[in-house]
Amino acid sequence: MKPGKKTLGILTVIVILAVYTACFGLGKDIKGAGDMRFGIDIRGGVEAVFEPVGLDRNPAPNEIEAARNIIETRLDDKNITDREVTTDNEKGYVIVRFPWKSDEKDFKPEAAIAELGDMANLTFRDESGTVMLEGRDISTSRPVEYSDQTGIKKYEVELQFTKGGADKFADATGKLVGRRMGIYMDEELISNPVVQDKITGGNAVINGMESYASAKSLSDKINAGALPYAMETKNFSTISPSLGSKALNIMVFSGVVAFFCICIFMIAMYRLPGMVACFGLILQTSIQLLAISIPQYTLTLPGIAGIILTIGMAVDANIIISERIGEELGNGVSLTEAVKRGYKRAFSSVLDGNLTSAIVAIILMFFGSGTMLSFGYTLLVGLIINLVVGVWFSRTVLLSIIREGRFHDLKWYKVKKNQKIYPIMKRKYIWFAISICMLLAGVLGFMKNGVSLDTQFTGGTTLKYEIEGAADVNSDAVAAKVSGETGRNVNVRLTKEDGLGKQFMVLTFAGQEGISPESQEYVTQILNGYQDGFTATLSETYAVQPYMGQKTLHNAVIAMVLAAVLITVYVWIRFSILSGLSAGVSAVIALIHDVLIVLCAFLIFAIPLNDAFVAVVLTIIGYSINDTIVIYDRIRENMNLHKCKNIDELVDTSVSQSLGRSLHTSLTTCISVLILVIASWHFGIQSIFEFSLPLLFGLVSGCFSSICVASVIWAMWKNAHKAESKKR
After folding, report:
1. Within 10 A of 61 (CB to CB), how many other CB atoms are there?
2. Which of 168, 44, 177 minimizes the C-alpha distance to 102?
3. Buried-state track 171-190, b at ≥16 Cβ within 10 A, e below 16
4. DSSP-assigned beta bridge partners for residue 461
5. C-alpha distances in angstroms, 561 versus 224, 452, 503?
6. Is the Cβ–Cβ distance between 481 and 530 less than 8 Å?
């Protein structure tokens, strides 16, 4: 597509269509933002892990699949169609996630979880109560409607038995001809048909149903009672619908504010190229929303944070390009040629930066689950779209505008002249001192607050209640009452969230044991019976046993180590002219520096380490290496041009030329994240605050380490190698 007036018109129509489709969708198959599939942290809902009990072995794959199908059936019976049901074949777990209905008012997660995992033991008994068969002997059951010879409708339930069950049923019916066979769900008699003949072949029917509805009800109960083993859960989390919906509104507001702030900055700094960047940013955001809504990928709050973060990162390509165009214009190159050269020379930096960040996003998706998975997906989609929209789209639009003969005046562009060279290498010990001071602040945070792992990693239980009538409530007295009634030590904390105008009570149970839905319901009853006028409504829970947390922690460590290794290898290969190993190792040292700064932020603000820590670390790894690669790319270019006499001069020149881009990119990204920090703090969205605050520190550290750590360590390595070679 050649640049020109016609092309500009076509691209404008594409942007308008993309925005419309992203907002409203097109038909039934292409869904817009209004029909997007949101996670339970936005819509409210349940996430529970059901595990086998009473088995002295690991369940067989066919048993796990049977358990999964039965839980699916129970969800169907409750008309819960918007759900995810997955299995862990190694341990025999069935993981269930489903949101509440949009009009849900009675928020009782304990009942929903208990009913899903209830064994509901199905038995077939003779008239004396002797068990002849069990639910596990039935493979499937379905309701049937038919008409007899007179045209009267009849209703039956068809049964299909397992191989062993068929033999048992034939034997039982042979003994009970002319007598009744009772069908019980636990101790409740649900059907009591008369056996007319001995039934062989593994198939049978229960007739005499009054209606199709009664036949379906019986069939559903039989299917639900066919669990191959008992299941229970002490690992679950719940979020109330009201809490999630308010969080969504806040996140959307933050995203809109961040978008406009970035556009204002880009236009003020880069003028016409900045306007084009904002035009492309509208298209990129629309496509990113469609990439989530069309396949109905579940979007969580961290996923929205990922979108907002990529809005900040998306302008990176345009900043690099705009800086390059300014340099070419400063060298006296014509406007059209300056634009073409700017895009050409910036492409390698954009490509390398996006690829290394994509490595991190893929690792997040592969090793993560839930929030980490959603964040990784939105980050990866944003990077892919950015590579296309940020380069090809903006280049075509800008050249089309220029070709029309307008905006040729250089006042519409930022022209860079007489690049000042900063003595980066001479001040290397100052940079190291700054890093040491930041790390010492983390040490002080550790000495004051210690380091703690969240229940996501260690196991444990946290219950959060929205409370009313708490003017004179004593948290210690509440803790003593709950502890005395349950026999478990508990910490009670009252919080007032001014943004929401509500008060909350957070109960954290000591130890690593989870909690059953029945026990959770009992705790709620204790709180509501504390004193007259005091009410506690469950808004959020998190309960997990140690082995689940240890698995999460294990995957997190693998993800972080793998990201560092893959990035080192990538840099080693791509920057062989810089002596690839030294460049790769220097980059990883800078990444370790940034990870430690992120850890310091968690320690200073006493934030427990959880999956948010993993997501922040991996995000910073991708962001920081992107920044480092831009500087490495400039060093590689200057080495090829033979402009610099020695390594120190090479680094000073290259860093100075890249400084504007690094600072501006960091500023735009920090604007997005700072808005998240302020909004999540004001409105009390703890999960987003604990994610965005350390991320803000990491972004600042990533910019600093790329400029003052990675390049400096590489130069010192090269100088030491040269000195050693001369001695030889």
Report:
1. 11
2. 44
3. ebbeebeeeebbbbbeeeee
4. 509, 543
5. 44, 21, 41
6. yes
Count of H helices and E strands in the chain?
22, 15
For 366, phi then psi, to 5°, come to: -75, -45
Tokens of 697: 């520190």
Is the Cα dihedral 261, 303, 546, 485 positive or negative? positive
In one letter, which amino acid is 707?
I
Asked if residue 232 lies in contact with residue 151, where contact means CB atoms within 8 angstroms, the answer is no
**215 CB burial (10 A radius; 0-12, 13-18, 19+):** buried
pLDDT, tens only, 51-62? 887 777 788 887
Cα separation, 372 vs 618, in Å, equals 10
Tokens 């910036």 belong to residue: 346
Distance CA 146, CA 157 (A): 11
CB atoms within 10 A of CB 498: 10
Give, in degrees to the nearest 5, the angle at Cα 657 between 656 and 660. 85
Which secondary-structure segment (H or E) carries 537? strand 535-544
Return all residues near 152 (Cβ < 8 A) that are at least 6 apart.
none
Distance CA 227, CA 686 (A): 38
Count of CB atoms within 10 A of residue 611's CB?
Answer: 23
CA distance 348 to 380: 19
Q: What's the Cα-to-Cα distance from 615 to each of 369, 622, 692, rounded to whole Å?
A: 11, 11, 10
Q: What is the pTM of this model?
A: 0.71
What residues have CB less than 8 Å from 701, skipping those under 6 apart? Answer: 438, 593, 594, 597, 598, 620, 624
- Quote the CA–CA distance of 369 and 618 in Å, as a whole number: 14
b/e map 411-422, b = 16+ CB within 10 Å: ebbbebeeeeee
| pLDDT of amino acid 373 | 74
Q: Provide the pLDDT for residue 120.
A: 55
Counting beta carbons within 10 angstroms of the beta carbon of residue 48, is it exposed (0 to 12), middle (13 to 18) or buried (19 or more)?
buried
Closest CA to 545 of 458, 415, 632: 458
Which element (helix H / strand E) includes 68?
A: helix 61-77
Tokens found for residue 110: 């304990």
Separation of alpha carbons 309 and 290, rounded Å:
17
The answer to whether the beta carbons of residues 193 and 209 sit under 8 Å apart is: no
Tell me which DSSP letter residue 469 carries: S
Q: What is the pLDDT of residue 684?
A: 73
Identify which of 626, 619, 607 has the alpha carbon closest to the alpha carbon of residue 680: 607
Distance of CA 314 to the CA centre of its chain: 19
| 45-52 vs 93-99, strand pairing mode | antiparallel
Query: How many whole angstroms separate alpha carbon 426 and alpha carbon 511?
Result: 53
Q: Which 3 state secondary structure label does DSSP give 144?
A: strand
Instruction: Report the Cα 529 to chain-centroid distance in Å.
Output: 37
Q: 23 and 32 in contact (C-beta within 8 Å)?
A: yes
Structural tokens at position 221:
């109960």
How big is the CA angle at 468 (ends 464 and 471), to the nearest 5 degrees? 110
Q: Report DSSP letters for 634-677, one per residue.
A: HHHHHHHHT--SSHHHHHHHHHHHHHHHHHHHHHHHHHHHHHHH
Q: Which residues of the chain have pLDDT under 50?
A: 498
DSSP code, position 240:
-
C-beta separation of 697 from 598 below 8 A: yes
Closest CA to 215 of 161, 122, 141: 141
- Is residue 206 within 8 A of residue 222, CB to CB? The reply is no
Query: What size, in residues, is the chain?
Result: 728
Phi, psi (degrees; rounded to nearest 5) at 128: -90, 0
Which residue, among 431, 442, 319, 440, has the nearest Cα to 704 in the 3D structure? 431
